[in-house]
Amino acid sequence: MALGDGYSINSDPEEDCEETDLLLNNDMEPAVKEAAAPQLCSARYSLALLMFFGFAVVYGLRVNLSVAMVAMVNDTESHQSLNRSTGHECPAHSDNRNSSKKTDGPDGSPRYPWSPETQGMLLGAFFFGYLVTQIPGGYLAGRFGGRIFLGGGVLGTAALTLLTPLAAQLGVSWLFALRALEGFGEGVTFPAMMAMWARWAPPLERSRLMTISGAGASFGAFVAFPVTGVICESLGWPAVFYICGGAGCLWAVFWFVLVSDDPRTHPRISEPEKNYIINSIGSQGSAHGWSIPLVSMMFSVPLWAIIICQMCSNWSYYTLLTSLPTYMDTVLHFDLQQNSFLSALPYLGAWLFSVLSGVAADHLLEREVMSVTAVRKIFTLAGLVLPAAFLVAVGYTRCSSALAVTCLTLSTTIGGASAAGVFINQIDIAPRYAGFLLGITNTFGTIPGVLSPIAVGYLAKDHSLAGWRNVFLLSAGVSIFGALFFLALGSGKIQRWAVEEELMSEEEKMEH
């Protein structure tokens, strides 16, 4: 890959690209003036819906181990020793018969004597593989299209999930390796989504289309938590991985049959909708070349604002995603079905809130109430700072189960607002390279997925209230730092290096 010349290093995001804005007017103004094609039964919203279910499956595959871990681990002795050491800080519920004792499942499924540190390593293993394929997946999806990478990523992860019970039986090392391979397969999915929307999403519909599709992640977590609990208790924990894996394979069939990389090649799209999408996006909807302006990207302040903010936001998100069932079990002492349902509740709110935030963001842009930069910063602040306040509150709820669940639910629900903020900002600053940029930001953003379960394993290894308070306070502090960083340095303007390739090709045409 050729390196960019680096002339687009920008220290002031708000004043960035004045010359480029003039050059882009010819391409970007039609996006505002083009008559919108109907949304109902359209190809672009059908794609958003199919992506929604795809990411629901993806997150089901990602979080099923978090709940199943409660059923897989035989820690009766450790529970008894912890009860003695912590003095029964939070008493078990009177109607809860499963919180302090675990027995074999209905099918005699095995239990494993994994320590909290081992559980943390296994929950973080997924992200070791997830780190590897983000950037190459985003680059290749931007060059060749995202259809095969998104569909193949889900299919590969689902197929590997079917092998989870066998890997657990073979040993911790095998299960760790399998989860890392699952992350390896799933790592290409989100960059591929961004690359596809760079070709499919009209600028004034980006927020809602991308939040609809991305909201599948929260919906998948919402469904996976309680369904996993029910399956564990009724069929045994191995059935969780067979059912989730099978669902992913089935979804992949529909994806490859119904989806096209580009509206130009979609066999069932209407002519008005195709013209609307193509004319709205302009030349920025085309594939990027083999060479990309790496040096310019490395020194782009708005890009680093996205990277740092997403890392900070993901610390809290992954902490709750992987460790909330453990908190519900070891501190609040909910049984498996209560645990799985209450762990899911926050993600129902996040799903609804993220979709509503996307609609609201597009409404503000359509009415020209504020700039893209202002919209992204407002939704990012709302989605990080307010949830952090509720996480702090969770740390001081002590044994009040109702109050703890309420604060956790409100924190994750309001956090959905950031879906219309920093999490789609890549397509604002560089539409053509959006898939590659998401690969970069997601790579950095996945680091908390590796570290946070391990940190929880050490901070809360004694399952004490003080240990979990430190977990929540750390998450809140990291989120607030990320929000302030993005507020200071984030931008919604397209960057000069994002159109270098286009400008150079135009100059070549003029010369000839």
TrEMBL record:
Residues 46-494 form the Major facilitator superfamily (MFS) profile domain. It is a multi-pass membrane protein. It catalyses: N-acetyl-L-aspartyl-L-glutamate(out) = N-acetyl-L-aspartyl-L-glutamate(in); N-acetylneuraminate(in) + H(+)(in) = N-acetylneuraminate(out) + H(+)(out); L-aspartate(out) = L-aspartate(in); L-glutamate(out) = L-glutamate(in). GO terms for cellular component: apical plasma membrane; basolateral plasma membrane; lysosomal membrane; synaptic vesicle membrane. It is found in: Basolateral cell membrane; Cytoplasmic vesicle, Secretory vesicle membrane; Cytoplasmic vesicle, Secretory vesicle, Synaptic vesicle membrane; Lysosome membrane. GO terms for biological process: carboxylic acid transport; monoatomic anion transport. Residues 80-113 are annotated as: Disordered. Residues 86-105 have a biased composition (Basic and acidic residues). It comes from the Eukaryota. Belongs to the major facilitator superfamily. Organophosphate:Pi antiporter (OPA) (TC 2.A.1.4) family. Receptor for CM101, a polysaccharide produced by group B Streptococcus with antipathoangiogenic properties. This is Sialin. It comes from Denticeps clupeoides (denticle herring).
